[in-house]
Amino acid sequence: QVQLVESGGGLVQAGGSLRLSCAASGLTFNSYAMGWFRQAPGKERVFVGGISWSGLSTYYADSVKGRFTISRDNAKNTVYLQMNSLKPEDTAVYYCAAGRGYDSAGLYTYWGQGTQVTVSS
Fold it and tell me: For the chain, what percent of residues have pLDDT higher than 70?
């Protein structure tokens, strides 16, 4: 059974950093593109960053470019989101996903449970 298990969320002050991890099981990890999405209270889920199956191509939402970095370790079946210079508007539940696309939620087949990131001012 496919599982994407996220960790690393928490409470951090503005300007701080967090690293989110997503461990995958039950799928051929290196056959999938991976993505990170986030959803703030009362808002729709939006794209944050994506990475190709090889890890050689990445793409980011304009709101996080220069601050967030997505990476993957196919040997560990794990994708990461390094978040630096965090802002209060980054506060959201963050989800990892596996699928065939970069920035479109509809192209991702499997989703994690989400992990809360809260950035205080």
Answer: 100
